[in-house]
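Researcher: Please translate sequence to structure tokens.
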Amino acid sequence: MVISKLIPNCSHSPNPFYYQNHTQIVFDTKAQFNAYHVWKTLNLAKKGTIGRKKLAEELQLGEGSVRTLVRYLKEAGLVETFKLGIRPTKEGKRLLSKLGIVPLPVIEGLKVAEHAFCVKITPIRSLGNGFEQRDAAVLSGGAGATTLVCKNGKMCFAGENEDAEKIYKELSKLREKHFSEGDVLIVGSANTKKKAEEATFLAALTLLDFTLNKRKETEPYCSLSILLDCPILVRSSKGMHAYIDGKHLEVESEVVEKSWKLSIPIEEIEKKGIFTGRIIKTLPLNIDGKNAVIAIVK
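Model: Translation complete:
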């Protein structure tokens, strides 16, 4: 039976994501939201359009972080935005359905802090002894997570064959109503209700298809073009590329080309290619020891 108490000074959250190939979440490095906030946002929005202010209250995030989160979600094709707020796209709803996270009543005896949250999942990854789920909960700022699996018609603690229903009678009714062979129950605990929910989700994530991968080289520029709401041009030894509304294109630009050759910042009107007549502002950079230029199109 794996029930972990809070480990001091071990609280942090994995940071934001990039949705790729409909199955993968790629985490960035500098924001205040994580995969839990993605799931929570889609869950809240599926009930009807939700405004950003209400979303910020529900997620307990600043409005700036929520704006960034919504931009990521829109870029990923998971939400649509309107004047009144956001709602999930068909792809967003499909992602929720695929995850198959089902909240259930908490078994009080399984929680290890004042607040707890309980979910059922059908895992696609192998379940071990429950330590991985516990550690994920603790790293998110929770007090820990208890993991059980439906095995041979009974609920057992992860990594054991002990019948947990003999200790916690409520598990029997819960299993009969909600569980099939191999389904997993996770109870995450924390000192606040919101943190308990977050810890439980991130513990569940260790068994689901929300793969964490490194970003491709182009993805930060695609994100930046959406964040700044303008085209981004990049010239390096690999050629000239444009990032427009999150899309990657090959383009021409005399202004950027001149800035790259001379290694100086330039702000001029473009006279060639699809940005003819628009102002290009460049900034020379050194990327991995090689000269490069990044530019915005005004």
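Researcher: Any highlights?
Model: The radius of gyration is 23 Å.
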